[in-house]
């Protein structure tokens, strides 16, 4: 009887923890996702909430775009092609011009990762390590995607129609990678009660 009460209490506690996790995950993700959209509007000329002061001093959207475009240009140049860039585009001489839009930045994935790390019940140290590792993984894969796409379009200009869905393919790939990382991380950082403790 006493064991049944303990099991019942554990289930209630587990359900409460799960509900708190899901609520935190959705709230933090919503806040970050909408906050990023607001900042994109506030820092883009012609945006609904555009403000020159915010655009000049708080434009982390452009900063993220720069740290994607600049290394992608280096990679393309390392392959022997002449690549140039401006604030939003990467151009290969006699080749494609790639526009790095808001959707290319990976802010949705990063918002999810931050929300997961805030919401998941584990030690902060482990969550910070997870966040750094996964954000760096997303960033590196995104740089390779942008530079790889530019190189493929340069080498195979007549095959452009096959690269139409590169964004969707990248998102699917990145979410598979992230969920695999999270799966193994959760297995490692979740305490499973033994029969002796029940």
Task: Name the descriptors.
198 residues, mainly alpha, 3-stranded antiparallel beta sheet, elongated, Exo/Archaeosortase_dom, peptidase activity, hydrolase, protease, Exosortase/archaeosortase family protein
Measured as a percent range, the helix fraction is 55-70%
**How many domain modules?**
1
The best one-word shape is elongated
Strand tally: 3
What does this structure look like?
With 198 residues, the protein is mainly alpha-helical. The chain has one domain. It has 6 helices and 3 strands; from the N terminus they run αααβββααα. The protein has a 3-stranded antiparallel β-sheet, with helices on one face. Helix 1 runs antiparallel to helix 4, helix 4 (107-119) runs antiparallel to helix 5 (124-155) and helix 5 packs antiparallel against helix 6. The longest helix has 42 residues, at 2-43. The protein starts with a helix and ends in a 9-residue tail after the last helix. InterPro entries: Exo/Archaeosortase_dom (IPR026392), Exosortase (IPR019127). One of its GO terms (biological process) is proteolysis. It is a multi-pass membrane protein. It holds the Pfam family Exosortase_EpsH. This is Exosortase/archaeosortase family protein.
